[in-house]
Amino acid sequence: MPSSRTVIPGPRNPAPSLVIVGAGPRGTGLLERIAANAPELYAGSELDVHLVDPYPPGGGRIWRLAQSPLLWMNSEAQDVTMFTDDTVDMAGPVRPGPTLHEWAAVGGRTFADRQLQGAYLSWVYEQTVAALPPGVRVHRHTRRALRVTGPREGRQQVWLEGRPRPLSADLVVLTLGHLDAELDDEQRALAAYARKHDLVHLPPDFTADSDLSALSPGEPVLVRGFGLAFVDLMALLTEGRGGRYEDDGRGDLTYVPSGREPVLYVGSRRGVPYHSKIGYDWEGERPPLPRFFGPADVDALLARPAGFDFRRDVWPLVEKELGFAHYHRLFTAHPERTTVDWTDFEEKYAAATSGAEVRVLVASAVPDPADRLDLTALDRPLDGLRCGSYDELQDELRTYIRDDLTRRHNPLRSQDQAVFLALLSVYGQLVRLGDVGPWWHGFFSYLASGPPGPRLRQMLALSRAGVLRFLGADMTVTAEDGVFRARSATVRGAAVQARALVEARLPHPTVERTRDTLLRELYADGAAATAEGLLAVDPADGRVLDRSGIPHPRRFALGPHTDARGSGAFTRPRTGGPAFRQNDATARAALAFLSALPCRAAA
């Protein structure tokens, strides 16, 4: 008779571990792709996923619920989704879900406040965690990640603020979002001058995080930057201080001040606000994109032994793509404003080998200059304008803003929306080229990511009320005689002085000057390389590159701090979603790596 014995199991191997640093929209999007791909690539096994972020998961810092309801989304609710569809070129499965508009039951054209978007993102996070297969566990750490250490071929250690022992990870993914940065030389000098002379200097920052209390009622404030950060600043310093808008019954707004507002003197390189969001729906045939800048063109650029230059090699292709979309829409939707058939024009447009040829062709086929696409004039709208005084400039700028509002809400000018669609297509292709420099991102935002129309109506009301004053283009700021002085090329010779200066823009993303200690240490140790100041990654799957250009097998990065960044806006439904494609590639690479580990444990 066999004897009985007790079998004592040996120590169990720990489950593989993945650490995601950053639990905002990008970290949540990566987690969603892990949930989508795990049934195929990681079925029946255990995995510990650690989310590290001091802010709530889903919204993260930028979309947290604890911020002013005066701060709006910059996209219509119908144009914001966190879910993939069949237009995304990816290997993983599509897992559809509602847009912000569908989830919140708000109008599709609504510009929701950021608190509502934060609630949507929190819901997406919760749904994503619930969709993870059995055995995949999520652990939240509401702390900052300070550094990552570990050998290339071994487990990594992620050190957290206030935690004596690190998290041990088989893989680390950095989804850090937008980075704070130390001041550059100019900003350091301005800050030092402000301290010496008891002035107010607010450097580039996220407006919702800036302390605006030092900006006194009635006092002039110089504001450098006329983009979305300025729009936030404008809202917080006017309505946020008790002012209100009233409809004057003629379609315009009147601003009723509270008396607690400063006087904002705003200028920038262009000297004008970003173009208004388009205020009509698309109807009819869409331009067949890509046409002149598609995957084959990107392949050819990447294959060049000597590399490529954006202005010389890429921009002509982009310019032709945008022009093609513009004229396709004009000729097919508004043929009465052209003098030749589309097929004839398209053939000659495709054959043109220079911008000069295109201009001659367009001049012969499109009689009204307002129907022609001039990207140089769009980029520099105040070039050639010289005003005798700042009072004269106010009338010029109010006319410019009114004209922009009228055009961007007029479906007879729907070629503008066709250019917008082409910009999205181009952005999807440019992601493969890595970072192409700051000019393109600024130009894209200026044309495609401007404020909602109501914000520009508010600007006009504030201008008429004297709370907002325009300074013009090529604004410069000097610190002299105990004050800040601003000048522009639009009003020559004249200067406006103030004791307060606000830099209304986000910090430029830079690994060298980032305040994020984790990235800074990776860069200092040579474990991370940069391209135009951004973290260099393998465009195929987001693996972090070291200074030798070698991808790290256990470290990945996604988002605007990398040279594979895409548009800062959320993905619009049915537009291919480059961020979705990147998230899917990284998720699949991570799951494939983890599934091959010898310590992989069964659930």
UniProtKB/TrEMBL annotation:
PANTHER family (alphabetical): BLR0577 PROTEIN
Name used for this protein in its record: FAD/NAD(P)-binding protein
Domain FAD-dependent urate hydroxylase HpyO/Asp monooxygenase CreE-like FAD/NAD(P)-binding: 19-178
Pfam families assigned to the protein according to its UniProt record, in alphabetical order: NAD_binding_9
Highest taxon, organism lineage: Bacteria
Organism of derivation: Streptomyces spongiae
Disordered, as annotated region: 551-577
